[in-house]
Amino acid sequence: MNVRDLLAIPILSDAKVVAGASGLARNVQSVNMMDAPDIIDFLKPNELLVTTGYGLKDRPGALVDLVRQMAQKGCAGLGIKIRRFLPETPPEMVRAADEWALPIIELPYQPSLGEIVNQTINFILEKRAEELRYALDIHRSFTTLVFRGRGVGAVVENLGALLGCPVQLLDPGFRVIAASPGHGKLDPRCRDALLTHLRSLNGSIPDMTAFSLLESTNPPMTFTLFPVRTHRQQNGFLVVYGCPFESGVYPRLAVEQAVNVMAFDLLKRQAVEENTRRMKNEFFTDFLSGDIGSRREIINLGKLYGLRENQPYVCAVCRIDDRLEEQVGGLEERRRRLRDAVYDRLETALEEVTSGGVLFTRGESFVLLRPAKEYGVREEHEMAAWLRSVQEEIARWVGVSVSFGLSPCIRHFYELPRAYREGESALHMGYRSGRRRFIQPYRAKELADLFRWIPREDLIQFYENSLNDLAHPADKEKLDLLHTLSVYLDNNCQIAETAKQLYVHRNTVVYRLDKCKELIGRDLKEPDVTLRLRVALLIRGLMYGKEAEGEMGDHG
Length: 556
Fold this sequence. Notes:
The structure is a single chain. The longest helix is centred in the middle third of the chain and has 40 residues, at 250-289. Strands 1-5-4-3-2 form a 5-stranded mixed β-sheet, sandwiched between helices. A 5-stranded antiparallel β-sheet has the order 7-6-10-9-8. The chain has a 5-stranded mixed β-sheet with strand order 12-13-11-14-15. 51% of the residues lie in helices and 15% in strands. The relative contact order is 0.06. The chain has 19 helices and 15 strands. With 556 residues, the chain is α/β, with parallel strands linked by helices. The radius of gyration is 34 Å and the shape is elongated. It folds into 4 domains: 3-124, HprK N-terminal domain-like (Udp-n-acetylmuramoylalanyl-d-glutamate--2,6- Diaminopimelate Ligase, Chain: A, domain 1, 3-Layer(aba) Sandwich), CATH 3.40.1390.20; 149-269, Beta-Lactamase; 306-444, 2-Layer Sandwich (Alpha-Beta Plaits); 450-545, Orthogonal Bundle (Arc Repressor Mutant, subunit A), CATH 1.10.10.2840.
């Protein structure tokens, strides 16, 4: 309750607000009576002080300081008995109260301060008990809906009817989970305003705090945002449109109870989703590792996750460009939340563009399988264009940069292990060239197909003969040389561009290439030599994929 509500009780019917009227909406939780000179040291926020002013009657400046200090401390207001020790409220005190919006109330000579304190406290307690009964009834009503299996949708619908305004429950990616009737879509203007406001908070949203935002649109749009959390994890937002909270405390109590019940139901959903995600990741890990026996078993298990046997797919492997430990200070919980946020945005993007898409994780990578309309190169181009919009969305909503390695289109999903390796190879190729926020298609897929017909020992012999002493780098110096050579070839033998991407001086690149020439034993300017080296490095990615990944990881 606020100061204005308290002034409505009979014992304060003759009281008069003489200053600070703009602060009558200040919350009142308790009433205190005190005349000690050091009153301020004993006051608490949301407390109304009643006094005769005896301790400060000869110190007008101290009365002004008291008003300022009470306002800064968050007190509710000041009630003074006039004509007892103070003939009137000092003008300088009135000016200070107006400036700080702290209500000053002149109390009548009768009744006594003790009677005023007792009756106001009783009134506060009765109102608090009434609010608690209301909250308990609302909580019981919402909980019953959930226990009967109607879920958060019924809670949102009933809350909207109770408040008399539209209500939406959004997930962390601002997808609508549930909405009051007729409001199943999120207004794009609202979405942009929410994003702008949340980003201004730097990800730190106070517990159970509402934010009212007024967009400069025609007509003006006002809404209030309530975070929904489970175990301190952000699970979504409840958005209430309009201004139902100006009518009193009960709408806020209804929302708070609805949020509590929603958090409980979302916690159950979260547990189911995490278990489903874990099982899905285990299936794909076994699939990619070759631990599932027959193709028929792969097909049958794949159907559980929406994979269709004769459906072409395009595969993309995604990673966050910045190392998460550097991005979030090494805190495991925040690190997990950042990865979850990227996963949610990828999942949202996949659901918005197609049905039957699959997203799973392997290690630090996110793997997307998007159904293709037909088998062909055009599908790969469409996938790349879509991934660019996904990059922008993740940068906008999550605030991190991601890159993608894109595989060629595959005819059947049981070809996924090959597509995954090619996506990983493309991703590492992009990182080797020193880039960030890129989409790297898999190169030379025709050569890769040809290589599968060549005996492994012949490929290894060609690789070792081509790179000689750089074929199996055993120390950091040779790894640096091999990495420089790879970037140099990727940039069409342009020394300046190579130096730029490696963040080193041009002379350093020249020196390293001279060392490569010495170790390989061939002139790097010869076209047939550069072609041979490109093929050798392609073989390196195919034959030593995981080993090359580990070696190049420190250079990406």
